[in-house]
Amino acid sequence: MSILEPFRYQYMQLALAGGLVVGAVAPLIGVFLVHKRLSLMGDGIGHLAFAGVALGIVLNVYPVWTALAVAAAGAVGTELLRSRARTSGDLALAIFFYGGLAAGVVLAGLRGALNAGILAYLFGSILTMQPRDLWAIGAIGLVIVAAVAVFGRAMFATLVDEESARVAGIPVEGLNLLLSALTAVTIVASMRVVGVLLVAALMVLPVATSRLLARSFRGTLLGASAVGVASVVVGLVASSAWGLASGGTIVLVAGLAFAVVAVVAGRRRRPRPRDGAIP
Questions:
Q1: I need a labelling partner for 42 at 20 to 30 A (CA). Which of 35, 79, 169, 182 fits?
Q2: What is the pLDDT of residues 224-247, one digit of tens each?
Q3: What pTM was estimated for this model as a whole?
Q4: Residue 279 forms part of a structural domain
């Protein structure tokens, strides 16, 4: 059977479309997080999104919107706590990390929420994606791309040197809050594809791969997005062919891509021994 055979079905077409959007936009935000040394922020905000999903199921509201509200509020709160209360970034993230996880567990126990589909958001359920999920992911994806296109240069300036950016009149605090909010938005868009437990990996692994190859920040952005898209396509095909969990397979493909590129790049940079020298 051709590897493209499953894509004749609507559920696979929806999965592919949603996966392509997430694979393209998640690494765009991941690039900024990696350069700011906040690679684990996606994991922490993901637990807040978990609490939002549980809240939506309990209230009988579409979980994507409640997850978006809770995750965005938590992301902004983390940044405010870090910048204004002089709390270190990892401590501020831990406070919201554990608070969101605890709230999610409590809410998930109400009205049998665990049996109502919350696991699909925890571990991802891309093959059960509905048209409304795709519309929501598409809208969120457009917001992310538009934000990076408009504010990308200013955000890059804050990565290079925050003090110089302030002197130049760039609103550093506002851009940091924007990045936090975009991180939350990205996680909510991705949780149906790979789940909140793995979403941080899809934001970081393509970036790590692209950094080994790219020679500029723009190249890192484009390369990370390309690796994310390729990981989704290959992961979907592999999971369909071998009956594997789609979300986990996508992340494993992204991790394998990094391992291969790291080995190849390491060999190219290794100096050749001189004639007569011991290799």
A1: 169
A2: 999 999 999 999 988 888 888 888
A3: 0.83
A4: no
